[in-house]
Amino acid sequence: MTKNKKVNAAILIIGNEILSGRTKDTNTSSIALWLNSIGIKVNEVRVIPDIESIIIETVNYLREVNNYVFTTGGIGPTHDDITAQSISKAFNLQYEIHKEAFKILEAYYKVGEFNEGRQKMVWMPKNANLILNPTSGAPGFNVENVFCLPGVPSILKSMLGGLQNRIIGGKPILSHTISLRTVESEIAKALSDVQDNNKDLEIGSYPFFHAGKLGVSIVLRSEDQSKINKCSKEILNFVNEKKIKIVDR
Question: Residue 153's pLDDT is what?
Fold first, then answer.
């Protein structure tokens, strides 16, 4: 991969607790923002249950059509944490104790605390590469282009920085937001015309409700700042013509 090549990724959220609504997913945002900052575009995000066959099938598909796959969840000590075992089967690798991971956790816990449940966290695919965990000790791992991270948001965030040297991105994906006191129907035609004039730049339109009033945030995304500047100028032209108020959010 070279710095000017398009690099993409998929995010796979694994866990019944996300699907049930008991736990709110914030990991997608954390991973996507980090990937964008190093020039990797997220192609898709999937949320799937803790079912081995579904994990295997989904991972095998995503790793074939993306440069990288990031999974979250299912690598803890409980009975339903089956991500590591499922990844082993997806790659047809032996599922075994990772000796380095064992040493890390054995040193992390006090004598007698590294029990059978916690030892489950050192079972991984054979020859997996560890992703060090500066927060709670238990490492994540990667096999080829699949990177497996924990589901706890604060722990996941602390581990992303350690991946910097393993991930080859492209140009950072830049963004610029223009927030307007209007509704989407009022700007739909004008915004569509701007998009037609700037086909190699991504324009998103997102309604919001703030301080009791409706508004729309227009988000421009590109690797090229000059393209963002050009597009922003065109948007501001129709905003001024329509006398639409620009707001800070």
Answer: 95
